[in-house]
Each structure stands twice: as structure tokens, then as C-alpha cells.
Design a protein that fits this description.
By secondary structure, the chain is of the alpha/beta class. Helices cover 34% and strands 17% of the residues. Helix 3 crosses helix 6.
Length: 418
């Protein structure tokens, strides 16, 4: 984007004293401050301001659900359009890549403590960066041959380019962070081995197993998990096929758009609530609609039908009802509104959870929903082991995962300095 266009977008910011946009940002970025620097064409200062709270500027600027976070809290948005905070942040992040601005350390003193980070996704990268900036020796253990986690294995390239991921991670690794690639927890090493070798450990390998609905036919061939499809890219042949995506979040949007681009004849997104209640960013919904994806709002799947493989699905219409004690309207099935759709594949995108076999064998206390239990200091029930991000039940967005990793790093520093 040209500097002139960005300057106009930056000048639109009112530089509010109370900074509601900052309150709306999971990372609490000082948005009015960095935009003020952009107004003054002080791009390095803008980058340095963002580095006080985040190390994923060009990524969050592109993929965060801004309308539900920072831009959704913008004063301008009350009567008109919100400030284009995401675009301006991405611009600053891109300038930093082009001009090779570095992430500065908080201290040049090297500490004699070592920390292992399990998982190189948003939470692991952020935790690593903050610890390295504080002078600690950090090693990331990554199960794939490249870092990025969901950034690389969950978000399609039409939303986030590979070179942006690579450049952002390179800046983080330049802090002196070591990486052990192709090392998977529970296969190539154990948590106990790391406990003997490191002074602290952070678990940040995410929760990327698709949840199931527990409905009839979920075991049939042709039923897939959205998270797994995006992570492994092991897709069936969609040419001239009809596909139903169940869910209303970003995983649902990303799988629907990916499948449509791979040649599916018809793609339905089935969501049991109204459009305004969808967790997905409105822009992602608009993009999906413009690409020919059909949305069935206030509809719910109740059965998957077929002989060994998916052939049809049975759905039911819903109505939104505000029940006593509820803070918002909830969907309720409409009696005798069932109908049948011919479908070749069903993709479940109704949430995610940690890999059961892995977390169950760690000897760490879990929550009732199967996430790793942490206290207010991000500590698990196991000595010197911390956890964060989706794995600990944090909100499933890149910004929230990054915040979790950053805040866990601060607690690890306190733990190590006792």
C-alpha cells in the first residue's frame, strides 16, 4: 500500500486520550501512539512502540478479527467507519521487514538460565521472544521442519503469505533463539527429559484437534475435521462435489474458501445462530460470499446419512430465543422443520481441543474440557512447567495466543529470578 494512502488512514485517527482501541486489543497495543508516529512518518518509532507489546505486527495486522477487537472499539466507528488499524499495523510491520528494523532486547545481560519452548506457533514464538529479550537462553522444540504453528499450518496462503511468516519469524530468531526442528513431544523426547535439562518449560503446542458434535454418522467416510484439513492439507478430490462446513468461526471460513478454490461445485456453511453472532470476522464472511459460498444461517445439522460414506445430511432450522438467565439469544430447534441435503463431504469446524493422547500422558492436571490447567501465573501442576495459548483454553485467535505467551514469559522471568 502506498505511503500516501496509509497517511490518509493514519490522519483519520483522532488520537483519543482514553484509547478505547487499546482496550479492545488483546495485546493492548498502544494504537494511538504508533499511529501518531505513522502520521509523522516516524516508521521506526511506530515499530518500536508496537514492539513494546507484540512481535507479530505484519501478521496480526493482516489476520486479526479487527472489527471484533481494536477497530470494534474505535470511537470513529460509532457514527462512521473505524480507523483502519489492521492495515496501518501491517504497513508498519512490512516497513520493518523491508528496512530490517530489529526487535530490541530489554537487556544485554546474559542470564545463566535455560528455557525450553514446546511449539513454534504464536504463543511459543511470543514467549520465546520475550524471554530472549530478557537475556535468557531459549530453545524451541518444533515438530515440523519450519516454525509458525497455525500461522503456517492453519491459515491459508491467500490470507497470509509465506514470505511474511518467514520474515517475521526471522526477526524473532535473530534475538538468539535456538530451534530443534522435527522434534515431537512424546515421540522424540519426553517432558521429563526436558525437566532435567532446563530451568523452565513452556508448553505452547496448541489445541488443533477438531471437536465433534456427537451426532449420528460422524464416523462415516467423508467426514473431516477443519483443523486437520488446514494443518495437513490432505484434501480429497472436491471437483464437482457438494461440501457442508459446520461452524461459524475463522476455521469454518478458511476451510470453506479453500475447498471452493479447489473446485467444489457447491459449498455450504451451516451455522445454528444468526450472522451477527458469527465469531468469524465479517470481512472473511463477505469474501466467502463473493466467492460463491452459500451460508445457511439459523440452521443446524442433526444427522449425517449414508452407507459407509457420506451421501446426505439432515438439518433443522432454528430460532433465536432469549431464555431466562441468558445474556444473549440462543438457538432453539424449530419443530418439524427438518430437511435433507445431498452432500459428498462434511467438515466439522465447531471448535478444537488438545490432542488427548498427548496431554493425557504428560502427567499434568487437566480441566474438565481437556485443556491443560494453569493458575494465574500460567503454571501447571508439574514443577517448573508453564503453559499458554489454545492449549490452556485461551481464546482461539492469534492475538490472544500471542498475549498468553507474552504474559507467561513474564511469569517465567519472575519464577527464574526468585
Amino acid at each position: 500500500m502506498e505511503n500516501l494512502e496509509i497517511s490518509k488512514k493514519a490522519d483519520y485517527c483522532l488520537s483519543c486520550i482514553k484509547k478505547p482501541c487499546k482496550l479492545g486489543c488483546p495485546l493492548e497495543n498502544d494504537i494511538t501512539e504508533f499511529i501518531m508516529h505513522v502520521k509523522n512518518k516516524e516508521y521506526k518509532k511506530a515499530y518500536e512502540t508496537l514492539c513494546e507489546t507484540t512481535v507479530l505486527q505484519p501478521i496480526c495486522g493482516r489476520i486479526c478479527p479487527h472489527k471484533k477487537q481494536c477497530e470494534g472499539s474505535c470511537i470513529r466507528g460509532i457514527k462512521s467507519q473505524s480507523v483502519s488499524i489492521g492495515e496501518i499495523e501491517a504497513f508498519v510491520g512490512d516497513i520493518a521487514i523491508k528496512e530490517n528494523y530489529k526487535i530490541e532486547k530489554f537487556t544485554n545481560e546474559k542470564k545463566d538460565k535455560k528455557v525450553a519452548i514446546i511449539g513454534g506457533g504464536p504463543s511459543g514464538l511470543s514467549c520465546s521472544a520475550w524471554l530472549a529479550r530478557c537475556g535468557y537462553e531459549v530453545t524451541i522444540y518444533e515438530k515440523y521442519e519450519k516454525l509458525g504453528g497455525i500461522l503456517r499450518h492453519g491459515i491459508p496462503r491467500f490470507r497470509l503469505e509465506e514470505q511474511i511468516i518467514d520474515a517475521t519469524i526471522s526477526k524473532i530468531l535473530a534475538l538468539g533463539i535456538q530451534v530443534q526442528y522435527n522434534k515431537e513431544l512424546g515421540k522424540d523426547y519426553s517432558l521429563e527429559e526436558l525437566q532435567k535439562k532446563y530451568d523452565a518449560i513452556f508448553l505452547g503446542f496448541g489445541a488443533n484437534m477438531s471437536s465433534k458434535m456427537g451426532i449420528q454418522g460422524e464416523e462415516l467416510n467423508g467426514v473431516y475435521g477443519g483443523n486437520e484439513l488446514l494443518e495437513h492439507a490432505n484434501h480429497p478430490d472436491y471437483i464437482n462435489k457438494k461440501v457442508a462446513i459446520i461452524g461459524g468461526g475463522n476455521v469454518a471460513m478458511d476451510t470453506a474458501r479453500t475447498i471452493k478454490k479447489k473446485g467444489a461445485k457447491e459449498v455450504y456453511v451451516i451455522y445454528r445462530r444468526a450472522r451477527k453472532q458469527m465469531p468469524a470476522e465479517d470481512k472473511e464472511v463477505q469474501d466467502a460470499e463473493s466467492e460463491g459460498i452459500e451460508f445457511l444461517f439459523q440452521n443446524n445439522i442433526v444427522k449425517i446419512l449414508g452407507d459407509k460414506k457420506v451421501e446426505k445430511i439432515e438439518c433443522i432450522k432454528t430460532e433465536l430465543v432469549k431464555k431466562e438467565g441468558e445474556t444473549r439469544e440462543v438457538p432453539q430447534d424449530i419443530e418439524n422443520s427438518n430437511y435433507i441435503l445431498d452432500i459428498d463431504y462434511v467438515v466439522m469446524a465447531v471448535g478444537s481441543k488438545p490432542e488427548e493422547n498427548l496431554v493425557n500422558n504428560l502427567g499434568i492436571e487437566l480441566t474438565k474440557k481437556g485443556y491443560i490447567q494453569v493458575n494465574e501465573k500460567y503454571m501447571t501442576s508439574k514443577e517448573k512447567v508453564f503453559a499458554g495459548g489454545d492449549l490452556s483454553g485461551a481464546k482461539a485467535t492469534v492475538a490472544w495466543a500471542s498475549r498468553s505467551g507474552r504474559e507467561a514469559a513474564k511469569q517465567i522471568v519472575k519464577f527464574l529470578e526468585v
